[in-house]
Amino acid sequence: MKKQIYAEFERCMNCSACEVACQRENGGLSFINVILIADQFAVPLTCRQCDPAPCAMACPTQALSISGDEVTLDAEKCNGCTLCQFACPFGMMNYNPESKLAANCNLCDKRRKDGQDPACILTCPSSALHYGDYASYTSKERRRASAQILRAQPPKRGVV
Amino acid sequence: MEFTMSNKELKSTVCPYCGVGCGFYVHVQDDRAVGLEYMTDHPVCNGRLCAKGNAAMDIIHHSDRLKSPMKKTGGRWERVSWDEALDTVAHKLQSINQKQSADAIAFLASAKCTNEENYVFQKLARLMGTNNVDHCARLCHSPTVVGLARALGSGAMTNPLSDLALSDCVLIIGSNLAENHAPALHWIWAAKDQGADIIVADPRLTPTVWAADEFLQLKPGSDIALLNGMAQVIITEGLADKDFIARRTNGFNQMAASVMVYTPEKVAALTGLQAKQIIKAARTYAKAGAATIVYCMGITQHTVGSDNVAACANLALLTGNIGRPGAGVMPLRGQNNVQGACDMGALPGVLPGYAAVIDDDLRSQIAALWGVENLPTEDGLTVVEMMQAAKDGRIKAMWIMGEDPVNSDPNAKKVQAALSALEFLVVQDIFLTDTAQMADLVLPAASWAEKSGTFTNTERRVQWCDQIVSPPEDVKPDLWIINEIGNRMGLQLGSNEAEAVLAEINTAVPAYAGINRQRATKRGGVHWPCLAEDHPGTPILHTECFTTASGKGQFLAVGFKPPVETVNHDYPLVLTTGRLALHYNSGSMTRRTIQMTERISRLRVEIHPDDAAQFNIENGALTRVTTARGEITAETHLTATVEPGVIFLPFHFPGVNELTIDALDSEAKIPAFKVCACRVEKEGPE
To answer: What H or E segment, with its residue span, contains residue B398?
Structure first.
């Protein structure tokens, strides 16, 4: 099943660790961004690796395509027109001002080839980021929710 | 310890920033740090790093690094040889020692340097004949050293951070760990996943509060009222652990009598909380199977800092929440080796191993170890006292190793005046800090990655760090610098090899007796006390008995006192200071790190919209903040995370501490950074 990055918004503390880690791995660009709303809510956004992908559909040169779990960029084909940025509903298609080409999260493909998870996942001090398929994420969420429900409404069995 | 991945040479190290002590690997290529890899099996962090840790490597090859010794002549810096620099320091210090006395010299050790460096540094001061040696622990956790030592026998964190995951309730008071000790947070979430209750007491709605089940937004400086109020509820509702109190503590009756006046209604009036919030928090903490108190500088940085710490310890003793997995008291330390610098005796009242300088037996044991007849017998001066003494002309020379008091001390204008009044100031650092700018001589020091030695984290975990890259050509490790100056003064200090110094520390500091390079290099190192080479170390303190003289935990009756500076007609608002996730202490490292400054480059003052309306302040515009000691201009950020009447400034930017007050806790001598009175005005033409 498709593996991608899931974020638990409740746990994100707006600490920027993921962004700084991503910058280090990607020559100064960060493909994960934490948005702070009303000083109290932090929303980490990354490329959702959509399939079908609006960015790829918008690309006039077919530089963006779906390959396996990822939206991949063929730098040879990219002409830097930025239409992909218009298309991304999350604002997560980036532009590299040095190469003047599109740039997006590739889930740290070099790291994954070494058997390592993406940098943002490993660094998150608040364990807010999860890398895996949707079932591994939702089953973790379900376990946690069950524990909370149980605590709020313990069964009446005469033992606590 | 090294390993290879994809033919990369990865060398392990411990983060040079805060006291959490996270491990990571540095990818080294041609003697340069070029990448970082996460250490997913590190017992403190499980691989996790904060933003600063992720960028820590950038410090190593930074273009601002000091590259050679420099002396100031006619206001200009001039490059000098190491020989000339070291001779100058030795000559100046010796001549002041001869003309006045060693007590006319003050030494600031460093919580950023290794145990071995701090040990040798304080040894030099004491062999010269003075106890005037202190460091920035004075400014963060000196009340912990005083308060916890009195209550529990040891002024240190009782349990490892991973124990947070075993707690049923975590009471976080005066700590914004989500920003300042971020990797510790994943243990809090692990606790929450098991159903733990998280209570956060803080004057500000910080990101730490986002993780809380209950938030107690108390008035700055009202902590004792809250803690005593919780104790009152616990006692009157019969929730105290009577068995634990009877078996393991002294002084219960006196403490209990003293807290009875702190009824929820009275505490509500003192703290600005509601009575029911106080009652609920007390019940949650007391009824938990295992509960932990986490505190930080919101507790310590007050004139009543030591009493605040005692009030925390009282709650833990009252409910038997100490000496068990998941139950303890956790002061979070701010620097990578602030615990170790204290353990090494870089404090004016104690020798290595907390041997009081006034204790004849303990002092003579250290004197014998060092091969001298006598060591100075009176307490030396603390950080803030040193500055006062320099200003008064009682201190003539200062040697500052890796500290930046111009930015880190309160009432900073007075600090600048004090340093200007010195006959001789030598500063040893990696950058030309604002303090180094005032020096007569600067000595370029190796960064953490360019030398070897041990660092002790907030959990008393002693970890060996190997040198991973060479220092720049004319830059030397602090240990070498201290030894060279000592040699020139005829003092036999010790080896330039950290391993050999650690062997001497084994004898001088009983808690470190069994810690050697090999054991400290092992993943996660060793928790002190480690009394022998075959002793496993001690992750949890006070399991059987306390380390007080009686072996019992000591309740301490403490009462609420208002902050020493209160709001008045001229200064109608409370100014409180603290830290941000993206910057670190005096800012000398993070204000030079582009990943931090591209996110936060300017000082921002947080003001509640109601206050802004009253004082005609606009969001985003410049505001002037004035106290009785100084003023500063900052960009305005209107936010409801502070309450009306309270404003917040982060202390990482120059000038903020020109505003703060240098009133001291009478015992711990910590300044009251956390509360002073101020006014705000719109900056610009009237």
So the answer is: strand B397-401
